[in-house]
Structures are given as structure tokens and as C-alpha cells.
């Protein structure tokens, strides 16, 4: 499962970008290869992850959720307890430190739900880097709180009105910005997507989730879990969680895509379940598209899963059968929110709620001596307006 | 030698410079494609770059992106463009160069696309999101149908890459004149001449300048050190405004020997 020549995961991945970006990608690849094995870089990263982000995050036994589901013992990997409220900071901080080592003074990023934008804005404030974040105009509306947070942190947020005005259009604009300002700017891509070496870099900065989980299980239960469940949009929390377990074939890996209003309605964001292979944003991957190869709009109640593609390493895990991909609808995700709030007193992000709901169903099919872990990738404070509106409230 | 390269070399042999206008197929409706192409070839352009709209044109600036959105809105697809071109291909006298992102070709099927494109009069192709490293995906099928695969060389390309790109490029070498996306600009970097000389060192394939060229003065200034120019955004805007006088001025500026 390691990165092969040209950054391929099986037949997925690659570097499908304009020539202007090729030199920058090679430069990034070389810099990353150098620093990933550099002890002072790793030490600096560990320092900030521990003292600034608050790692390691707890692996928490969700006893009441387990009782409510009536099956496997359910654990939560609490990425929601990270500084800024989601796993996104792991990668944003890692890449910002890398940019600094590369001598880049400016950062560009895209954001969907705003979690990656907030994480990047945070890392840039911490490390004194100038930051600009592109965000789909639709998402700016849906995630006003995160826009305000980014601005407070000193980041310039640019609303993208083009196309579907969501995450994919924000990636387009961030790529254009990067092409135009290639000399002094690093692009902090937020998910395990895009051209090589991004999917590998993002995975490596997120694998701390899986590495900790693995060590925590060995300590708490003296064994590995039977199943891991994580939500998949671009797939950064899930690949970070899965990767350290890929060789442990007795551990079942479940990736949960967003089925939106239902895959059969066409209004969904499930690239693996409901897409075909194609090229977008630098990578060959499963992609929502029409018969003409035009990329179609993704739909999900969760802005963070609202992307028409999926990380190339996930595509490979799907094709080899190592991970199982399934999907959960908007309504089911809302059930997941309510369930976790009421059984455990934890408000999950809408993204993570997809994994919560799926796990609650999966647990029922498992026996009480089996163990399941959910990657709780983020907290749901940012989503309260959306959740309220969806449940018929008038908070918004 | 590809027909595209031949057309450019026969232009430069006369002492003129090659002029390749870019048009967005389907902007204003596909019915505009035939009259536009025929009128451009009447003006004496060397070849015509036919843009295929795409939902996520990351290499394009606002002018071409908007033209693409208009073309998509009226239902333009790669298949329909090929069909339309084929319907009047016997009238097309200049080589056509398709400019399309990779995914529409993958969806069409690479072999089928190459065969159909040949029948439509397409002699060359530019795929802006497919760097040299990935070209094996399409190369064999294009070659079998005599379609030249044009490589872009950017200001950021390292000397080692410039050598590989220029040696691999077919038809012509597309030298990107700015860091960034397509679109009109007022000024260019001062080191361009040197950059072009370096590119031309490795190959006898003509080097054409593109991105940001929007005035007759730009066209003339690139004449000094390139085999010609590609003009995109300015042509697209002029076609929308039906301003053929501007287009004529631009084409004339390339005819450094035959028009005084």
C-alpha cells in the first residue's frame, strides 16, 4: 500500500496538473522526502501536536452508545477534542511547518466546511505566515461561524461564486492562486486528494490518528479492534485512521460516504458508490461526472463531505477490497447526531455523524465481545444552525 | 512531419509569424462554430485552437472560464463539437488544434476520440492538465491518428524539463509567457527573450508564445524571438462583441513580411 512510482496507489493518483505546477510539485516532493526523516522537523511537529493541539486524543469507551446499539463494544477516537475542533489541524500544522522549512512565506488553502480553513488559519497565525483561504460562496453561507473565526485569525477569506460554489470550486481557485503565486506560496491542501505528493503528505500527517488508536487499543484492551468506521469525503481522517491498520487484515475497515438525499436521487457525494473513474484536481480517482466527463455537483448536508471525488488511496483500498465503502444519507446522519448527543453528551460534526450512524448499525450485527471504533473526526458546534434547520427549528 | 508543424513552418518560411487564435466552441451556440472558423481562416490565420468547455478549467482565467460556462449552459460537449466540426470538415483548410482537459477525453474513450477527432480535421491537441509524465495514457491513440500532442513549457520549468518537453512536443512548442492562468495582461517578465532562446536550443519544432497576449504590439514584440503567438482571451472577447476589426488587427500584426 505504499506510494509507488509517480505517486500512484494502484492505478489511482498521479499528477494531472498544468506544467506551471510541475516544478513546484517536484520541489514539494523533494522537501517532504527530506524533512519527513529529519529528526528536528519531527521533533518540532511532535512538540506542537502535544503542547498546542493537545494530542494524544482520548480513545473513549462509549458505554451508553454501546448499550443503545446492543452489539459490539464501541469506542470513539476523539479527534473532536483537538485544538480547533477537528482532525484537520494535524495536517494543517504539519504542512505549515513544512512550508516554513521550505522558505515559503505565504499560504493558500481551500476549505469546505471551514474546518480545514480554520485549522490552516490557526497554524498560519501560530507560525506567522500570510494566509488566504478560498471557500465556496454556498459554504460561506452555511458556515458563517468558521468564516468569522478565520478572519479573526488574520486570514483573508475569498468567497468563490463560480460553478457550484462549493468545495470543488474552492479547490479550482486555490490551484489558480497557487499557479499564479508559485514563487513564494505553498498550497496546504486539506484532504488526501490532489496531485502527488499531496495524498501521501496529508495521509502521513493524519496517520497520527491511527497510530495512537492502535497503541491505545493494545494498552486498553490488549488487542486490536475488529472494525474501524470513518467518514469519507476527500478522505483525510479516514486514511489517517486506516493507514496504520492496513497490514492488520483481521481489522475490518469501513469508509462511509455521504449519500445525501439518497444515491438513487443523484443528489449525493458518494464518489466510490455512485461515481466512475476520472481525473479532477490532479488525480485519477472515482468521480461524480456525467457521460460527457463533466464533473457533477456533489450534495450532502455536511459541507465537509460535499466533494465530487475521493482520495486515490481510498480508491485503491476499495478496488483491492481491503476497505469496505458504504454510504449514509443526510437523514441518517442527523439520527447519528441525536444518538451521540443523547447517549454520550457529545455533539459530533455532521461529517463524523455519518460514521456514527453507520457504526451504530454495524455494531448491532457484531457480538458483544467484538470491538468497533469510530473516528470522531470533529465536533458539531459549527453545524448547529444546519442541524436546527434540518430538524425544523428556527435557530438560523 | 505533422500537418500542424508544416503549416507553421510554411508561414515562417515566408517571413511571417504564425498566428493561432483560440475560440471557445459553443460560446454563442455551436451554430457559430462554422462561420467563425471559416472567417478566421479567410483572415489568414495559421491554425485555430478550438477550446472544449469543461466544468473545472483550472488552467484558465476568468475570460475563458466564463466563455466555457456559457458554452456548457447551452449544452456543448466534446462529442457535439466533434460532430459539428465533422459536418463541415471539407471546408476547413487550416489545421485545428483541440484544447481540452483530460476527463472529457477519458469519458469519450481515448481511441474513439482520436479516430473521430481525425475525421473532424483536428491535427493537434493541447491537454493542459496532462503533463509529460502522464502522456502515455493518450499518446498511442493520438499518434495512430496523426494528431500532434503539443506540450506546454512554463516559466517555472527547470532546464532539464525544458529539454524533455521541447524534444517531446509535436506540432509546435507552446511557451507559456506568464506564471498563472490564461487571460489578458499588460506586461510580461523581462527575461522572456532569454527563456525563448533556451527553449529553441533543443529542437527545431517552432516555439509559439501564449497566455496574456492581447494587443497587436504584444504580437509584434513576440515576433522578435518566437515563431508566432496564440491569442485566446482577447479573441474570445472580440467574438462575443462581434468585433472582427480587432481580430483582423491582431492577425495582421503577425504578418511581419507580407503586410506592411
TrEMBL record, chain A:
The lineage of its organism: Bacteria, Bacillati, Bacillota, Bacilli, Bacillales. This is Tryptophan synthase beta chain. GO terms for cellular component: cytoplasm. Keywords: Amino-acid biosynthesis, Aromatic amino acid biosynthesis, Lyase, Pyridoxal phosphate, Tryptophan biosynthesis. Coiled coil: none annotated. The keyword Amino-acid biosynthesis applies. It comes from Ureibacillus endophyticus. It is an enzyme of class 4 (lyase). The keyword Iron-sulfur does not apply.
From TrEMBL, chain B:
Signal peptide: none annotated. It catalyses: (1S,2R)-1-C-(indol-3-yl)glycerol 3-phosphate + L-serine = D-glyceraldehyde 3-phosphate + L-tryptophan + H2O. GO terms for molecular function: tryptophan synthase activity. Keywords: Amino-acid biosynthesis, Aromatic amino acid biosynthesis, Lyase, Tryptophan biosynthesis. It holds the Pfam family Trp_syntA. CDD domains: Tryptophan_synthase_alpha. Belongs to the TrpA family. This is Tryptophan synthase alpha chain.
